[in-house]
Design a protein that fits this description.
The chain is mainly alpha-helical. The chain has helices at 20-27, 48-55, 65-72, 74-95, 128-131, 143-146, 148-164, 176-198, 201-214, 218-237, 248-261, 270-286, 304-321, 324-334, and strands spanning 39-42, 60-63. Strands 1-2 form a two-stranded parallel sheet.
């Protein structure tokens, strides 16, 4: 635990279990401080919440809004992950051998590709195949007549398509399946232009295969896009913009009004209906601790950046020792210390 105003770490411990008595024992020294604690910011942990209420009954308990939004997005993330798995299978089925084999490109000299830094690779004229790419062959030209130039174009497009099938998501606002679908659709549209210029059967197969694979997922991804629009609206309501700062009651009133507009409706798709119920349930659970940050000066809305400090410490120890067990024992016996700059004045 650390002070939000100065960032100084007060206590750092390795807890053998995460329940109410353990958190309460860990937080107990807070009662010995000579100054009042106005508020506490943390995630909405099952054991931590009652411990804070017991040790600091007079302080306000702000829940991390980033955790709130991530919990809201869980149904969308699960549906998106399932769609992505199915979409990847269908794309590979539609493309067949085209997605597994590619022409052998000419290797770069001694294996070095592009180098950046203080001594970057020199910028020279483009190689001959790329320089000739602007001069499109007539539509009647056969793939064999295009030769290495056609292989280079097709190889680049196939590699890009395969890379899109490996995209990773990061909820709440980045869903891998939705992003994969949108970018594959963009790729398929670009292929239509290339097909008109190059008349290569491999490009035709690639374009038609992507369109056939994306067609069955149009309705599910439309529902996911609508759910993401709701989620972004909720995030915007928690970050009010304007010349005058808003109070917690004002933000809560705006959030309550938008929540009422998202009441489950029979006409909605099943995914959106379940998501609407989930929004209502999670919001009711988080409601008592979502809006203190607007009334307590200096109280952040989230603590995600602070949480990463301990993960970084564990990661650095693991890199140094190379053993997970040794890293865990080091944390248990010696603790994780964060070395911070000295405060500029003695009062701070």
């Amino acid at each position: 635990m650390r002070a939000l105003t100065s960032g100084l770490t007060w206590r750092s411990g390795w807890l053998s279990q995460q329940d109410h008595p353990t958190f309460e024992a860990f937080l107990q020294p807070l009662t010995q401080l000579e100054w009042p604690i106005l508020a506490v910011l943390s995630d909405k942990h099952t054991g931590l919440r009652p411990a804070v209420a017991t040790v600091l009954p007079e302080s306000r308990y702000q829940f991390c809004q980033a955790h709130y939004l991530r919990n809201l997005a869980e149904p969308l993330a699960e549906a998106d992950a399932a769609c992505k798995v199915d979409l990847r299978k269908v794309v590979r089925q539609q493309l067949g051998d085209l997605s597994r084999h590619e022409p052998q490109a000419t290797p770069a000299p001694i294996g070095v590709l592009t180098v950046t830094g203080l001594l970057p690779s020199p910028i020279g004229p483009p190689p001959a195949p790329l320089a000739r790419e602007a001069q499109s062959p007539p539509p009647s030209a056969s793939p064999a007549a295009m030769g290495p130039e056609a292989d280079e174009i097709v190889t680049a497009r196939l590699r890009h398509t395969r890379s899109l099938l490996t995209l990773k998501g990061r909820p709440p606002f980045r869903l891998a399946g939705l992003e994969t679908s949108e970018r594959l659709d963009h790729v398929a549209r670009l292929r239509l232009v290339l097909v008109a210029e190059r008349s290569d059967p491999r490009l035709v197969q690639l374009s038609q295969g992507l369109q056939a694979a994306l067609s069955p997922f149009a309705a599910p991804y439309q529902a996911l896009q609508q759910g993401m629009a709701w989620l972004r609206d909720i995030a915007s309501s928690l970050e009010p913009a304007g010349p005058q700062p808003c109070t917690g009651e004002q933000v809560a009133k705006q959030r309550r009004g938008y929540r009422d507009t998202l009441r489950p409706q029979p006409a909605l798709a099943p995914t959106l209906g379940e998501f609407g119920h989930h929004l209502d349930t999670v919001s009711r659970s988080y409601w008592p601790g979502l809006f203190h940050c607007y009334d307590v000066p200096g109280l952040p809305r989230t603590h995600n950046e602070s949480e990463s400090w301990f993960r970084d410490t564990s990661r650095y120890l693991l890199r140094t020792t190379g053993q997970k067990g040794l890293t865990k024992r080091t944390l248990q016996r010696q603790g994780a210390w964060a070395l911070l700059p000295r405060p500029p004045i003695e009062a701070q």
